[in-house]
Amino acid sequence: MNMAQRLLGHAPSSQEETRWRLLQSATEVFAELGFKAATTREIARRAEVNLASIHYHFGDKAALYREVFRLPFLNDCNSFAIIDVASIATRDALYAMYVWLFPPEAESDPMLQQFMRLHAREEGDPSGVLGDAMVQAFRPNHENLLALLCRELQVSEADDEVQRLAFSLVGLATVYLHGARNAVEAFAPQLLQGVPARETMVERLVDQALVLIAGEKKRRTKLQKEST
To answer: Which CATH number fits domain 2-67: 1.10.10.60, 1.10.4160.10, 2.60.40.1120, 3.60.15.10?
Structure first.
């Protein structure tokens, strides 16, 4: 209930507590079994509520699954989505983004572990029920990153190269969580073990991102000189 209290700003009421217990148990069950094998009966059992509570709070299993996927994008978990791009230092903004994408405390936070496991399972075996829920949830982050890059590159709107750079910066972190997680654990597991190692990883991700941004600045400057 700690997460619920932080997001709500107050101790949850009985109904709010039931909802958050369902979200927590659903995260566990979906991460362990996947969407298709998970049952609402098992989710309700682990939450210690009656089965009707799922229908009351969420409607059906698919809606509950989509709501679980929204949790990491809520403001309490997603500081990058609410930063003031116009005033924050670039390094600080990138740090906020990478802490969200690659949380150093993930190993000690069961919910974060479940989220990562669930997202990995969804990528390997898509449920088919998310639709554009993930795209819409990620949109504020993507738009903030584009705004930050446009500011740094001194352009009024994002062109294809800005979009390409944005996805590259996000990819720097997601490779450790999804795409090549197994390879990292096999070849260099020390990169992911313990909070100090993960904090170092965040710092290096920021450093690498700044190099990529500087490279794009240099490329654009060169093109401008060649065109004059």
So the answer is: 1.10.10.60
Q: Determine whether 81 is exposed, middle or buried from the number of CB atoms within 10 Å of its CB (0-12, 13-18, 19+).
A: buried
Is this structure's pTM higher than 0.85?
no
Amino acid at 40: T
Q: Are 79 and 61 in contact (CB under 8 A)?
A: no
Read off the pLDDT of residues 28-70 as tens digits, 9 standing for 90 and up. 999 999 999 999 999 999 999 999 999 999 999 999 999 898 8
pLDDT digits (tens, 9 = 90+) for 195-226: 899 899 999 999 999 999 999 999 999 998 99
